[in-house]
Amino acid sequence: MAPSRRNSFVHLSRSNSLEFISTAAPKLETAVDRSVPDHEPAEIDEETKYFHNNPAPSYLPEVKKKVSDFIQSHAGKRPIALVTSGGTTVPLENNTVRFIDNFSAGTRGATSTEYFIANGYAVIFLHRQFSLLPYSRHYSHTTNCFLDYLDEAPDGTVQISRQYQDQIQPVLRDYKRAVDQNLMLFVPFTTVNQYLFTLHLISLELKPVAHSSLFYLAAAVSDFFLPTSRVSEHKIQSKGGSGQLTVDLDPVPKFLKRLVEQWAPGAMIVSFKLETDESILLFKARQALTRYGHQLVIGNLLQTRKFEVIFVTNDAVTPYRISKEDEENGKEIEALIVPNVVELHKKWIASHE
Ligand code: 9Z3
């Protein structure tokens, strides 16, 4: 009997992945959770309040197990990078028809993951589900549909077109090596709530690895969200109301300071700062560095993020650039970013030995 499609997929998929988890916004028990108190005592900080008032994703125990196994298998052998990637969503309904999203495709995170692996790292890839993935990203753009790379031979077998063999072979080799050596763990999220709970969990799991762990926070995280207690259960109706929809969003707690100080005190932490106005980028990157007390802020502009970034540390401001021509010839800015981050991480490790 022919195997079902699903079974053959499960059988063939060897990568270490939690993709089977559905991160589509979960249906919660009630639209309005009356058990959640409106105001917490002032001494409880914002983070504690956030994790208390918003529900943990039901699949977190599975993530914990996989992450813990992954870390154990690499600890002491190679550095481990946590790469976050893609944009988080803010659902407006529990049975989610509408949500707030952002532009991020996950290119930075997926591309950087490949370079970290090439530089000897194991990578936990915490990514927006269905955004770009390392290695397969080369063939999942709409302009680069994977079917265009395939031909049907006269006997009906499907094969890679001769003209693309040279292009696909190195990517395939790198991918197989990463999978065979268990160098990537894919952990998905969709909502900002899932992202925060999962980031918190992975940070705590990485604590024992301390200095040899690297946080590379490239995900575009929502700045505002709708707390669980105000999310309506069903689709918001367009008829019957005033015709206008007013959404009152709360600020997402600034978790980076807590991450630096409490969740991952030994790790080297790299955050990204995204702006659209060049005149404030450096100021904002420096401000983030002082405010959160971590090691490196990589500043980038929405418009030029694929060609230039600035590294801002306590000691220096260093720009890295590739030309438009380089980019058109297949060069990637991550080929400059990642080795330079790796150098800083080596120094970080050495300074703590
Ligand atoms: C970045 O700045 C990333 O480089 C991009 C990558 C999101 C621009 P793509 O996924 O884009 O390749 O399309 N990430 C961080 C953005 C962010 O939300 N940073 C926060 C901020 O700027 C600080 S954690 O306030």
Mean pLDDT: 89
Count of individual helical segments: 10
Order of helices and strands: HHHEEEHEEEHEHEEEHEHEEEHH
For this structure, the CATH topology is: Rossmann fold
Please describe what this structure looks like.
With 353 residues, this protein is α/β, with parallel strands linked by helices. It has a single domain, classed as Rossmann fold (3-Layer(aba) Sandwich), CATH 3.40.50. The chain is built from ten helices and 14 strands. The strands form four sheets. It has an eight-stranded mixed β-sheet with strand order 7-4-1-8-11-12-13-14, with helices on both faces. A two-stranded antiparallel sheet has the order 2-3. Strands 5-6 form a two-stranded antiparallel sheet. The N terminus is likely disordered.
